[in-house]
User: Fold this.
Amino acid sequence: MMIGDRNMRYIVIGNSVAGLSACETIRNNDKSADITVIADEPFFAYSRPLLSDYITGHVKIEDDRFHYRRDSFYDDLRIEKKFGKRARQIVAKSKKVLLDNSEAVEYDKCLIATGGVPFVPPNLKNSSVEGVHFFTNLTYALELEKALKKAKKIVVVGAGLIGAKLAEKLSLYGFDVSIVELTNKILGLALDGPSSSLVAAQMSKAGVNVITEDSVNEILGTTKCEGVVLASGKKIECDLTIMAIGVKPNTSVAKESGIAVNRGIAVSETMQTSVKDIYAAGDVVELHDTVFQMNHPIPVIPWAAVCGRIAGENMSGIYKSFNGGFPVNSISIGDISFVSMGYVETPDDCRQYINDKRIDEGIYRKVIVKDGIIKGAIFMGDIERAGMISAMIKDNTDVSAFAERIVENDFWWHSLDRTLREKLTRRA
Assistant:
């Protein structure tokens, strides 16, 4: 695609799933375009879910599976890399991205795919001492890796997907680990009571001291971490405190640029922001949640890939729209793997179908239905049919005729009539 006598210029701010998907789509549609990726970290794109495996030596940076794309990705797609540089502001009037080194990069279309940043408890006392770490990117992981060489006792703050997985891995690696969670169960946004208890048991089996309904109020130590004080008054000795409370959308460049931001960047169905020719995708945006019927960040890798592609299509002149998504969580802890989606606790206006006959073996199934439509599900220890259920949620399938059987052992694709089966397999 040409503008006058020059190539179209695309800038992608961010170097993870959404940004990579957009780059691939743009290059597919525009063979001559100039594409530039700007990223504040100096690394090729890597898998954040594997950071806990990296920390404990189960995966190396040079391993293929640690990276989302092959090493030649940027050269193959003729992408200019500006790594280790932070995009400070987008000046829409002059169509320039200003970097923190005072460099200005011109664009015709720009994508913000800056992901998330760690949430920091606002009232945490003494959090600036040595030994307090975050764990949301490779830069933080490398810092933590060095600190672990001198540590024995660790407190992980927050028992979400990041914190729970990290705590289990570190405990199995030989550290004395406690995990502190404010709510009454671990993985509270991803699991219900029975399934959360199964994972908590796995973590305890791995040696993790699981503490719920409490929080860290203060870090002990004058210059370096010596322990924590909980809201309950309990003190725990530790060498390191790892903050894993969660992430929030990294909207700083959008705010600096006058782009509309709510909890995340507001985007249209084409992934365009409130400013013409500036798009956004990935964990930094708000998406329409088709289950909860509201707009909010949905930090899920598959949706980041989908929305990155949609942004790339529209940036390169091909109309595509995003019709909404829903929360999906998937992880393995100990001997248990699970997938959950949509509601995990059952609202009063919904019905739940549960199969807990083999819960002692770590197998648990739950589907939540409202007016014949699936609104949520948990599959633990037996996750093969999660793709089928996800397709039903996407399709808004009326399951009234077979809802009573949907969590039974023998319910599978063959249980559906041929027309519905063919329709759903295209969406799975």
Observations:
- The mean pLDDT is 95.
